[in-house]
Design brief:
Radius of gyration: 22 Å
Order of helices and strands: HEHEHEHEHHEEHEHHHHHEEEHHHHHHHH
Helix content: 40-55%
Number of helices: 20
Oligomer: single chain
Number of strands: 10
CATH topology of the largest domain: N-(1-d-carboxylethyl)-l-norvaline Dehydrogenase, domain 2
Strand content: 5-15%
Structural class: alpha/beta
Shape: globular
CATH architecture of the largest domain: Orthogonal Bundle
Distance between the termini: 24 Å
CATH class of the largest domain: Mainly Alpha
Number of domains: 2
Largest sheet: 5 strands, mixed
Length: 413
C-alpha cells in the first residue's frame, strides 16, 4: 500500500519523500511506483530515504505524513510517537489502516497531533480503485477533515465517504463479513462450487474466495479478527476465521502473494489447482457442474438485464438457490443495518461498496427486487430487516441515490 500511495500522491503533483527501513528498499519501491504509473518520470517527484537517517528531516518539512506500516497497533503507535516529536504544528498525519481504531492510535500524542490526525483508507491498488474512506476520530479538527476531503476529491480524484471510527470502518466491515461467511462454508461445499454460485452474476467483480486470495489471507485474518474481537452485532459469528485458514496462514499460505503455497487457488505450470480444506492439499481444478438458475442469471447479467437476473435468483427452486439467496440477502441486511453505525447514510455505504470493491451497492439490490420483496425475503431467512428498508417498503420509495452511470458500472463483472 505504501507503493500505491506514493504513486497516487506523486501523480497528483506532490513531492513525496518515501521512507523505508533501509534506503535501498525505498529505491526499489520507487521502481515499483514507476511500474504502476508506467512512467519513469514520476520518480522525479519521489525522494528515497530511511527511517533512521531521514525521518526527522522529512517529517519536519512535510504538509502530510502518510503512514502505511503493517496492520499492527503497537507498531503504529510507536511510529506516531516519533512523528509527534518532529512534525510541524499544522501538518496532517494520516494512517492508511484498514480498520484499526483511529482514536487508539492517537492516544498519548500531543493535542496538536490528535487534532490533525485521521484515517485515509485507500483500497488496493489505489491507482486503479478510487474508493476512499476518510475516518476522523472524536478529536480531529473538522477543518482538517475538510482540507483532506478537498485534497483527495479535487486533486487526487477519489470517490470519498466519511466513515465512522468503528472496527474495519465501513467498506471492509461489510465486505469481509460476506467473504468470511463464504470462507466458513468451504469445508461443506468446496472452493469451486462457492465461487461459481456467488460469482459476478450476484453483483461483484470477482468471486469471494478469489478476492480473499487477491487481498491476502494474512490481511483477511487481521480484518476479521479485529471485528470479531471488538464488535458485537447480529453477524458476530460470521467474522470468526475458519480453522483451516488459520492453519494455512501458519504454513505460509497467504493467497496470490505466495504463489508456491497458494491460497484457495494455486497456479502451477500445469494450470490452476484447488485447495482441499480437509487434507490441506491441492488438486487439479475441474469446472463446476452447471446449475440452471446460475447459468440463466449469468446470461441475463452479461447483457445488462440485472432486474431479471435477480428475479431468477428470487424464484429459483433449486437447493443451491437457498444458499445463494442467504449470502446475497445477508450482504444487503448487514450493510444497511450498519447505517448510522459505520457511516451516516446508506448512500455512503453504497459508494464505498461500488468504488472500493466494485460490488453492487446494497441499495441497488433493494431497488431492483423491490423493498417490500426484500423485507419478505429477509424475514423468510431470519435475517435482520434494516429500518431504512422497512421505511422504503412502507412508503414505496427507492433507496439508491447514485447516478444512472454509477448504477450500471457496479454490475460489471
Amino acid at each position: 500500500m505504501g507503493v500505491g500511495a506514493a504513486e497516487l500522491f506523486a501523480a497528483g503533483g506532490y513531492h513525496v519523500v518515501m521512507l523505508a527501513r533501509e534506503r535501498e528498499k525505498a529505491i526499489d519501491a520507487i521502481a515499483e511506483v514507476q511500474g504502476l504509473a508506467r512512467a519513469e518520470a514520476i520518480s522525479e517527484q519521489i525522494e528515497p530515504g530511511s527511517y533512521d537517517a531521514d525521518l526527522q528531516r522529512a517529517v519536519s518539512g512535510a504538509a502530510i505524513v502518510f503512514e502505511a506500516l503493517a496492520e499492527d497497533l503497537a507498531l503504529k503507535r510507536s511510529f506516531f510517537e516519533r512523528i509527534d516529536r518532529y512534525r510541524a504544528p499544522d501538518s496532517i498525519v494520516a494512517t492508511v489502516s484498514s480498520g484499526l481504531s483511529i482514536a487508539e492510535m492517537a492516544q498519548g500524542r500531543s493535542p496538536s497531533f490528535r487534532q490533525h490526525f485521521l484515517g485515509i483508507h485507500l483500497f488496493n491498488p489505489p491507482h486503479v480503485i478510487v474508493g476512499t474512506e476518510v475516518i476522523p476520530h472524536a478529536e480531529t479538527d473538522p477543518a482538517v477533515v475538510e482540507r483532506v476531503v478537498e485534497l483527495l476529491n479535487k486533486r487526487l480524484g477519489r470517490r470519498l465517504i466519511e466513515a465512522r471510527d468503528r472496527p474495519a470502518f465501513a467498506g471492509n466491515r461489510v465486505a469481509f463479513k460476506t467473504m468470511n461467511e463464504v470462507a466458513q462454508l468451504v469445508p461443506d461445499y468446496g472452493v469451486v462450487f462457492l465461487d461459481y454460485l456467488i460469482g459476478p452474476h450476484t453483483g461483484r467483480a470477482m468471486a469471494p474466495l478469489a478476492t480473499i486470495d487477491l487481498v491476502g489471507w494474512d490481511v483477511h485474518e487481521a480484518i476479521v479478527n479485529n471485528v470479531y474481537t471488538r464488535a458485537r452485532d447480529e453477524a458476530h459469528v460470521l467474522f470468526k476465521l475458519p480453522g483451516y485458514m488459520k492453519d494455512g496462514i501458519a504454513q505460509g499460505r497467504l493467497g496470490d502473494k505466495t504463489p508456491a503455497h497458494g491460497g484457495f487457488y494455486r497456479r502451477t505450470e500445469k494450470g490452476v489447482e484447488i485447495l482441499d480444506t480437509s487434507s490441506g492439499k491441492y488438486h487439479e481444478a475441474a469446472a463446476p457442474k452447471p446449475i440452471d438458475f446460475v447459468e440463466e442469471m449469468k446470461v441475463l447479467h452479461r447483457v445488462g438485464r440485472y432486474r431479471e437476473s435477480l428475479a431468477v435468483l428470487k424464484t429459483a427452486r433449486a437447493a443451491e438457490a437457498d444458499l445463494a439467496r442467504r449470502v446475497v440477502l445477508g450482504y444487503v441486511s448487514y450493510a444497511l443495518n450498519r447505517v448510522g453505525e459505520v457511516a451516516e447514510t446508506n448512500g455512503a455505504i453504497d459508494t464505498i461498496m461500488s468504488y472500493g470493491f466494485n460490488w453492487a451497492p446494497p441499495s441497488v439490490l433493494v431497488d431492483l427486487l423491490g423493498a417490500a420483496s426484500i423485507v419478505e425475503l429477509l424475514k423468510r431467512y431470519e435475517l435482520k430487516v434494516p429500518p431504512i428498508v422497512e421505511r422504503a417498503a412502507a412508503e414505496n420509495k427507492k433507496l439508491y441515490a447514485g447516478s444512472v452511470l454509477d448504477f450500471g458500472r457496479t454490475f460489471v463483472g
